[in-house]
Amino acid sequence: MVQVMPEIREYNGNTLSYVTDGEEEELGCKLFKKYELGKLLGYGAFAKVYHARDLRTGESVAIKVMSKQRILKKNLTAHIKREISILRQLRHPHIVRLHEVMATKTKIYFVLEFAKGGELFGKIAKGRFSENLSRKYFQQLISAVEYCHSRGVFHRDLKPENLLLDDDWELKITDFGLSAVSEQIQPDGLLHTLCGTPAYVAPEILAKKGYDGAKVDIWSCGIILYVLNAGYLPFNDPNLMVMYRKICKGQFRCPKWTSPELKRFLTRILDPNPNTRITIQEMINDPWFRNGYEEIKYPTDNEFEFKNSSEGEEKGFLNAFDIISFSSRLDLSSLFSNKGNRIDGETFISKEPPERIIEKIEAVAKEEELVVAKKGLGVRLQGQNGNFMVVVEINRLTEELVVVEMKSRGFGRDIWIKKFKPLLNSSPGHVAGD
User: Judging by DSSP bridges, how do beta strands 371-375 and 60-67 pair with one another?
Assistant: First the structure.
């Protein structure tokens, strides 16, 4: 027998608290002299999330902390790359925003928009929502999901635990760790990776025949709408296989308080046949959905510029995203380059002033009769009738340390190893890389 839960029309509540495992960061510590770490908000298998204060603005942020060792051990590097890449390009009022990424030798830190209201799941656990309130959050959810799909991003793990509420109790989608992008679609036009949360997973994923990322997100949105209105799951059973059979057949019943219009709408979303399942555009045109709906405006791509470095940082210093590149066996640098094909390269850290490093490179280039072009703290070398190229870029890591990055094409790497590297390695300021 299904227990009827009290209806929630208004909110009063705080962020959920969690028991720690004794390995949390030190309370009050200053990360990179930019953020003061606060209490632990929550944790999962691979990350912990803390409240923190931006020391420059005083504003609250959420910091997601991940262990590099665990990422490598669980082969999650591709997931982390994808999540950073996706969050960098998404800017929507109902998607948690990524401010920056920082890293040490052992950990990666995502600095995220802070959602003071906590998980939507915590509110649903206290009772079902009214139909009007359910519709409001569903409209916000669909606006954000449509935005993601228009940019070739499919979340694939939409559920109340991944929906947060901000200070104004507006919805925010988070956790894009299982998301897919258009580039992952196989020649048959479908995705094939099995993922998601059992109670929210679409029938076509269970069938293991490939699936459309947009259609599985729509299914999950339907489950969320049902839960908001009912206070419990449409497909649920202690026996996982029994639950999967119900999902595949689309067998569910709406509670007695559900309006006929919402019942019809849910039936179209939770259609086990992806070919006849309602589309997002059809949802937006549905009379039940359009009740009180206001189209949400968000910046277009040409209005948005992602800032890799924080305002006020000294020009020429390494930005937060690049630091990740200098950690052993976890090179995520390709995420932050707009260049297409990768070329040979290597990186090392030096205590020598960048001007002195450039002087040494120029001296060798002159002896080898190479064409030299300088720009800021960068040098480009060409020779042998254009058959090779070496580009050296220098970034300040701290007041005392610089990062020297070499990229080469053609025979450039051979020239670098034979002529330039020995000179720089013999420098008293050279520091071995990680």
Answer: unpaired
